[in-house]
Automatic annotation (TrEMBL):
<dbReference type="InterPro" id="IPR050445">
    <property type="entry name" value="Bact_polysacc_biosynth/exp"/>
</dbReference>
<keyword id="KW-1133">Transmembrane helix</keyword>
<feature type="domain" description="Tyrosine-protein kinase G-rich">
    <location>
        <begin position="142"/>
        <end position="194"/>
    </location>
</feature>
<keyword id="KW-0812">Transmembrane</keyword>
<dbReference type="InterPro" id="IPR003856">
    <property type="entry name" value="LPS_length_determ_N"/>
</dbReference>
<dbReference type="Pfam" id="PF13807">
    <property type="entry name" value="GNVR"/>
</dbReference>
<dbReference type="Pfam" id="PF02706">
    <property type="entry name" value="Wzz"/>
</dbReference>
<protein>
    <submittedName>
        <fullName>Capsular biosynthesis protein</fullName>
    </submittedName>
</protein>
<feature type="region of interest" description="Disordered">
    <location>
        <begin position="227"/>
        <end position="247"/>
    </location>
</feature>
<feature type="transmembrane region" description="Helical">
    <location>
        <begin position="174"/>
        <end position="195"/>
    </location>
</feature>
<dbReference type="GO" id="GO:0005886">
    <property type="term" value="C:plasma membrane"/>
</dbReference>
<keyword id="KW-1003">Cell membrane</keyword>
<comment type="similarity">
    <text>Belongs to the CpsC/CapA family.</text>
</comment>
<feature type="transmembrane region" description="Helical">
    <location>
        <begin position="21"/>
        <end position="44"/>
    </location>
</feature>
<feature type="domain" description="Polysaccharide chain length determinant N-terminal">
    <location>
        <begin position="3"/>
        <end position="94"/>
    </location>
</feature>
<dbReference type="InterPro" id="IPR032807">
    <property type="entry name" value="GNVR"/>
</dbReference>
<dbReference type="GO" id="GO:0004713">
    <property type="term" value="F:protein tyrosine kinase activity"/>
</dbReference>
Amino acid sequence: MEETISLKEVFAVLRKRLSMILLITIIATATSGIISFFFITPIYQSSTQLLVNQSKSENQIIDPNQIKSNLELINTYNVIMKSPAILEKVIDELDLNKTASQLNSQISVSAVNNSQVISVTVEDPDSAKAAKIANTVAAVFQKEIATIMNVDNVSILSPAELVSNPSPVKPNPVLNMAIAFVVGLMIGVGLAFLLEYLDNTVKTEQDLEKLLGLPVLGAVGEINVGEGASAPGRSRKQKLGSESLES
C-alpha cells in the first residue's frame, strides 16, 4: 500500500522541528559571516587596458584588413602576456617574491567586447600592488612585443589607478551569508523530515491505524485522581484503623 503525505502533515513536521531548523540556519549564516569578515583575506582588483591598433603611417588611412589582422592577433597577445617571457621581467622589475606561475594565477587577460582593446586585470591582497602589477605587465608587454613578434601596434589606453577607498572584490560577505542561509535552511528541513521518518514511536490513534492497517474502534482515556479524592482501598484502611483505636 502506497503511503502519501498531505500538505497538512508537511506543515506539522516543520512546525514540530521549527526550533531545530531555525537553529541550524542561524548557525550556518553566522559561521559564514564570521569566516568572511575575519578569516578570509580580502582580495583587491585593478585593471589596465591596451589598444591593438594600426602602426602609425603617413597617410593614416584605416585599413580594414589590418584591423581584422589585429583582432586575430589578440588571442596570441593574450597568451604571450601571461607567458614566463613577460611575467619574469615583471617579477624582476617589481622585485616580487613569487614565481611566474603564481603571478600568472593572479592575472586575467581578455578582449573587451571583441574589440581591439585588451583588458589586463590583476587580483592581489594589496590594492596598491595590484595596480602596480597591472601597469608593469602592460608596460613590459608593450616593450617586449616589438621584439617577440616584430610589431609595433600596441599602446596603453588606460593605466590602472589606485582609488582612495578601494573595495575588495572577494570575499562577498553578503553573498556568502545568503548562500549559507539557503543551505542551512535546506539542511534543517531535510534533517527534520529525516528525523520524522526515523521516528517509529506510536503517539496517536492515526499512527496506530497506519502501523496495523486496522481502524481504531475505541480509546481509553487517561484517568487522573485528584489530590482531594481518596481511593476506596485507602478509605477502608483508615476506617479499620480508627475502629482498632476505639477498642
